[in-house]
Amino acid sequence: MGQIILDALKNAGMWFFQTALIKFVVFVALYLVVGALVLALQDFGIIPSNQNMMQAFSFLPSGLWYFLDYFQFTEFFPIIITAYVAKFIIRRLPIIG
Q1: What's the CA gap between 45 and 43, in Å, rounded?
Q2: Global pTM?
């Protein structure tokens, strides 16, 4: 009985280190790379920065701007852009995507 439990723990540990931990490290590295890539693209002007977005959205009426502020649009819009870039990169990786 004890040998079965030890074998199960050994297999669970092997699975964790062979698959889950490796994928975690790859995705964390990918997250950091995408974050740096988005900042670099913002510096080059390819992706709009917060200041450019504020200028673009300054023409919106105050009623719409109230709801955008209420839902923290200026906070989550860069997160959405980063998520789409990460999705694009992940789909291009032959091992993961």
Answers
A1: 5
A2: 0.51
